[in-house]
Write a structure and sequence with these properties.
The chain is of the alpha/beta class. It is built from 11 helices and 7 strands. It folds into 2 domains: about 40 residues, no CATH class; about 220 residues, Vaccinia Virus protein VP39 (Rossmann fold, 3-Layer(aba) Sandwich). Helix 9 packs parallel to helix 10 and helix 10 crosses helix 11. The longest helix is centred in the N-terminal third of the chain and has 26 residues.
Length: about 270
């Protein structure tokens, strides 16, 4: 129907019927557009860290920085082995480009919900890492199971843990030019106390900062909930020291593989 005929039809077809016809055309057009878009971005069923790295490299990320800044599959498998079979609600602090985040969402299945906290500032030379996270989740069909919160877990801090990974990096410039929300964990304790089956901590590597994060994590985890700390190693001696200092009053240490440390929050009884 050409435009002039459609215009004429408006005057001879009852208004409610005309609107229904217009709505059907709009719906059909949107359905065609959605089908075309979905065919371009087909989902990938299986997930591995290696496949995630390859995808991110194909999107312009430096392979060496990806590998160095992401938890290896072996350590993720180790941490996963301690998760309860019915674990569905997770908290992931420190996303980088999403390799470990996507791993846990995929491992928990289609009923999972993982809250991911990250300030989305440049890390290891990769700017706007949240864009990579979203692309990775969508590529593997995991985007509907993740709630991304853009902000610092506590107060704002310098990027890259104060290290110059990629060369020529000025932490003060990032601090001044990349604002983000702050105090996300304390706010979550007000909204969702004792709701999470597990928490993965891979954010700020300052020991005192992590200790204060853990004070919030204790409130956020369910009794019996699992805590996973990344970088429990001599290279990150502050994290290793925090892990060693964690008392038995709230957590039981389950083990470490030399990269991640796993603990369980005591049950109420």
């Amino acid at each position: 129907m050409n435009s002039s005929l459609r215009e004429f039809s408006k005057w001879i077809v009852p208004y409610n019927i005309w609107n229904r016809l217009r709505q059907k055309r709009l719906d059909a057009g949107r359905a065609r557009q959605l089908a075309a878009a979905q065919s371009i971005s087909a989902k990938v069923d299986d997930y591995t860290c290696a496949a995630a790295i390859e995808f991110l490299v194909s999107h312009g990320c430096d392979r060496a920085q990806l590998v160095a800044g992401s938890m290896p599959q072996m350590s993720l498998d180790y941490a996963r082995s301690f998760l309860p079979a019915d674990a569905r609600r997770g908290l992931h602090v420190g996303n980088f480009v999403g390799v470990s985040l996507a791993y846990f969402i995929h491992a928990l299945g289609s009923e999972s919900v993982v809250v991911a906290v990250d300030p989305n500032i440049v890390h290891r030379g990769i700017a706007n890492p949240a864009r990579r996270v979203l692309a990775l989740l969508e590529h593997f069909g995991l985007e509907q199971n993740c709630l991304l919160l853009t902000g610092y877990s506590l107060e704002r801090s310098v990027a890259n843990d104060g290290r110059d990974y990629a060369g020529g990096f000025a932490t003060t410039e990032v601090f001044a030019t990349e604002p983000s929300c702050a105090q996300v964990l304390p706010q979550l304790t007000r909204l969702t106390p004792s709701k999470f089956d597990f928490a993965v901590m891979d954010g700020n590597h300052d020991g005192s900062y992590l200790r204060r994060e853990l004070a919030c994590i204790v409130t956020l985890l369910k009794p019996g909930g699992i805590l996973v700390l990344d970088d429990v190693s001599s290279e990150w001696f502050e994290i290793e020291r925090v892990y060693e200092e964690i008392g038995t009053d709230m957590f039981k240490k389950l083990g470490t593989d030399g990269r991640v440390g796993v603990l369980r929050k005591h049950s109420a009884d």
